[in-house]
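Hi all, posting the design record for the shared folder.

TITLE: backbone redesign
STEP: 1 of 1
STRUCTURE INPUT:
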């Protein structure tokens, strides 16, 4: 399935983005005004140096507005920098704050465009593994090398080979200029300060699903004008006062915050997020005779990937399918998981079947899960339950 519709709901406090595949919500992103968004670049001030296991060091960095991030001294080249408390440093958010963990920071800034990722000082050209036209990919990689100036690295994104190289070359200059602006601003600002705010996530989704998305539903006239300036009449835009409410996304979010979801063919899936991992259990219910168990597990495999994307589950995900845990029964389920996760924008790896008969998936974490964004640990039950934020 492909993303055909995007719903963009913006108000003063929260921005919501929903990606629809054949009318069904497949991915959600909720953005609050106070969070340090992945991709933002800051001139931070080191608040505290901490000793980590194995003799390693880390730093808590003040990003401003009461926000703090963590910088690991194991990052390449950081040990030679001799950082000290009170020092100013340019950092980028690589992973947003989640639960009790601070936002993760890096010094190696990367700027993401529609066709390229700019990696200053990396000194190599790479390309997305999702590019199918390998001949054109190789051609564009050579052209990028020819257009390189000085010490820099580039990654060709999937959409790069769908446009004339002149568009790619233009973006190379635009990203260079953006990075130079960041450097100049870092010299003049006083820490802590925001040096670069990542463009609205909507445009990232539009670029990622270029040629697929046919319709945008939004309540923002400003966004309507910006999208029209970029896409003209190639994208249908509908103005709606409360898009998430009118198109049932609020209800979908409420359901996605539940720990249990039912399967159409019988059975149910239980999803439990913990600090160590996400545990998913498939229960066949009463219908477990004959080939029913295989059918339920197959349906569950498709639904599990849908829930992983919808809830933005990440890190280590452990699945206990119903019934047999022998490899011959699990192999078809692994194939379904791999096939469906290949469509995921976040990098995922199906690690296979453990000795305990559990399926393990590792998914890259960029943002908090939906549950972490919308709820918080219940103080009354010492974290064994979660309640809606602000309740």
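Okay, here is what came back for every position:
SEQUENCE:
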């Amino acid at each position: 399935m492909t993303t055909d519709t995007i719903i963009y709901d913006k108000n003063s406090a929260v921005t919501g983005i929903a990606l629809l595949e054949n009318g069904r919500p497949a991915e959600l992103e909720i953005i609050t005004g106070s969070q340090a968004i992945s991709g933002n670049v800051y001139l931070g001030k080191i608040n505290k140096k901490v000793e980590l296991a194995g003799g390693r060091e880390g730093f808590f960095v003040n990003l401003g507005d009461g926000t703090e991030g963590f910088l690991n001294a194991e990052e390449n080249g950081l040990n030679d920098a001799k950082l000290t408390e009170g020092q100013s440093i340019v950092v980028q958010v690589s992973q947003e704050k989640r639960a009790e963990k601070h936002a993760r920071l890096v010094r190696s800034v990367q700027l993401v465009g529609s066709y390229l990722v700019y990696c200053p000082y990396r000194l190599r050209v790479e390309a997305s593994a999702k590019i199918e036209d390998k001949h054109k990919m190789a051609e564009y990689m050579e052209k990028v090398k020819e257009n390189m100036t000085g010490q820099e690295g580039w990654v060709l994104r999937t959409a790069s080979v769908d446009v004339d190289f002149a568009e790619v070359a233009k973006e190379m200059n635009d990203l260079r200029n953006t990075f130079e602006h960041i450097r100049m601003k870092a010299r003049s600002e006083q820490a802590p300060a925001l040096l670069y705010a990542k463009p609205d996530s909507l445009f990232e989704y539009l670029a990622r699903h270029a040629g697929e998305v046919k319709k945008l539903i939004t309540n923002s006239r400003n966004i309507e004008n910006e999208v029209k300036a970029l896409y003209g009449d190639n994208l249908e835009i509908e103005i709606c006062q409360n898009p998430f409410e009118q198109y049932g996304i609020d209800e979908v979010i409420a359901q996605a915050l539940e720990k249990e979801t039912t399967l159409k063919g019988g059975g149910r899936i239980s999803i439990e997020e913990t600090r160590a991992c996400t545990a998913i259990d498939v229960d066949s219910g009463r219908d477990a005779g004959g080939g029913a168990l295989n059918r339920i597990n197959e349906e569950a495999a498709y639904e599990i990937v849908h829930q992983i994307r919808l809830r933005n589950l990440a890190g280590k995900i452990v699945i206990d399918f119903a019934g047999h845990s022998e490899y011959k029964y699990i192999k078809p389920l692994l194939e379904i998981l791999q096939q469906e996760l290949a469509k995921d924008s976040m990098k995922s790896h199906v690690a296979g079947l453990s000795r305990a008969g559990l399926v393990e998936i590792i998914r890259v974490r960029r943002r908090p899960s939906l549950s972490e964004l919308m709820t918080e640990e219940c103080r009354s039950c010492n974290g064994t339950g979660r309640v809606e934020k602000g309740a």
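COMMENT: The first helix runs from residue 134 to 146.
Let me know if anyone wants the other runs.
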